[in-house]
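Why should sequence recovery work at all? Because a backbone constrains its sequence more than one might expect. Tight turns favour small or flexible residues, buried strands favour hydrophobic ones, and helices have their own preferences. The token representation captures these environments compactly. In the example below, the structure is given first.
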């Protein structure tokens, strides 16, 4: 008889766990959140740097997605504004980097970015980031270049 009740209790427990569905929704207010930042690409009108600037903006959004910062869509919704400008960019040659194992300086990809963090009271800080990809097993990629720059930019913002 006790085996019967044990089986009934076990089956009931399994059925209740299988049939129970919990759905949770979190609603957040993004305006004036303490870690919201608006990305302002200042070189989007310069033809030579429009595409690298867009790639850097996407890399920054990806980097901020894995941090405590929230990227705002409008400057009015953000606490801070991150203005960035591509100063120098050279894609280099990935094939040359691959064949020379990164020893050729002319094949390196270089990126120099100037950026400033703006708040309601004005400029909070300004920095310059230098990144380069020189080689590696597959010659390094542009994605790695922009990802490294975005990571360095996020590290500069760590104190704010």
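From this structural description, the recovered sequence reads:
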């Amino acid at each position: 008889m006790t085996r019967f009740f044990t089986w009934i209790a076990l089956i009931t427990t399994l059925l209740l766990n299988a049939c129970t569905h919990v759905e949770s929704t979190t609603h957040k207010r993004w305006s004036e959140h303490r870690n919201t930042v608006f990305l302002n690409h200042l070189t989007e009108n310069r033809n030579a740097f429009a595409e690298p600037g867009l790639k850097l903006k996407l890399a920054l959004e990806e980097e901020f997605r894995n941090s405590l910062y929230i990227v705002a869509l409008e400057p009015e919704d953000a606490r801070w504004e991150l203005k960035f400008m591509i100063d120098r960019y050279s894609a280099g040659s990935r094939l040359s980097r691959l064949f020379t194992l990164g020893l050729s300086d002319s094949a390196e990809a270089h990126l120099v970015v100037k950026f400033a963090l703006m708040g309601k009271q004005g400029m909070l800080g300004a920095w310059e980031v230098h990144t380069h990809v020189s080689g590696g097993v597959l010659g390094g990629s542009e994605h790695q270049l922009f990802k490294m720059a975005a990571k360095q930019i996020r590290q500069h913002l760590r104190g704010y």
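A few observations help interpret the result. Residues 47-65 form the longest helix (19 residues).
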